[in-house]
């Protein structure tokens, strides 16, 4: 995980992933788009996604 992502940034990334998937974007594509949008790696996005699910971040 990049050291530059704080809680607020991680939650914004998580929200973007979930909203994209809810809109019909494929999981892999939503991760790639979020990584590009927020300047992190896809691996970072996957870790953030796991964290968001575990902690039940909105919009879950």
TrEMBL record:
It comes from the Bacteria. This is Uncharacterized protein. It comes from Limnoglobus roseus.
């Amino acid at each position: 995980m990049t050291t530059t992502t704080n809680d607020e940034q991680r939650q914004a990334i998580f929200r973007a992933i979930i909203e994209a998937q809810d809109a019909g974007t494929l999981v892999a594509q939503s991760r790639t788009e979020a990584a590009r949008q927020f300047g992190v790696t896809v691996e970072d996005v996957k870790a953030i996604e796991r964290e968001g699910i575990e902690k039940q971040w909105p919009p879950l």
